[in-house]
Write a structure and sequence with these properties.
Largest sheet: 2 strands, antiparallel
Order of helices and strands: HHHHEEH
Number of helices: 5
Keywords: DNA-binding, Transcription, Transcription regulation
CATH superfamily: Winged helix-like DNA-binding domain superfamily/Winged helix DNA-binding domain
CATH topology: Arc Repressor Mutant, subunit A
Pfam families: HTH_20
GO molecular function: DNA binding; DNA-binding transcription factor activity
Protein name: Helix-turn-helix domain-containing protein
Distance between the termini: 44 Å
Strand content: 5-15%
Number of strands: 2
Structural class: mainly alpha
InterPro entries: ArsR-like_HTH, HTH_ArsR_DNA-bd_dom, HTH_MetalResp_TranReg, WH-like_DNA-bd_sf, WH_DNA-bd_sf
Shape: globular
Length: 134
């Protein structure tokens, strides 16, 4: 183990940016932007649905979430800007025409599973630990 970040001593660093390794692909600010993006209820639900469905069209997302087109595309754009989702445009026309598909990135899946969903799972643990009826 390296000594940067106080890992050898188990102490946290003074500067939070030192929590990342020197070779980190993203900066602390970029990670925080991802957290802020998924902290919005609509964007959380979009990433949640994309992770579970693998990929969806905006039309499919709209039918599941009942959002107007401009609101949906605004949130899709925000999520794409921070790297939590990506889009793919089909090159072949199907019976309904050309489609744009969205899917979660690896970072989107990770922030969902190890961030928000982990906190939600811990809520169940807290409820069980402090349940006076058992």
């Amino acid at each position: 183990m390296g000594t940067r970040h106080g890992r050898a001593t188990g102490e946290p660093p003074d500067d939070p940016s030192e929590l990342l390794p020197e070779t980190s692909i993203l900066s602390l600010d970029e990670y925080l932007e991802m957290q802020a993006a998924i902290g919005n209820r609509t964007r959380f639900e979009i990433v949640y649905r994309l992770v579970r469905a693998d990929e969806l069209t905006p039309t499919e997302l709209d039918s599941k979430m009942d959002l107007d087109d401009s609101t949906l595309h605004y949130h899709l754009g925000k999520l794409q800007d921070v790297g939590l989702i990506e889009k793919r445009v089909r090159t072949e026309r199907d019976s309904d025409g050309l489609y744009t598909y969205y899917r979660s990135t690896v970072l989107g899946e990770a922030i969902l599973e190890h961030g928000v969903e982990e906190l939600l799972r811990r809520e169940w643990d807290f409820t069980d630990a402090y349940d006076s009826t058992t």
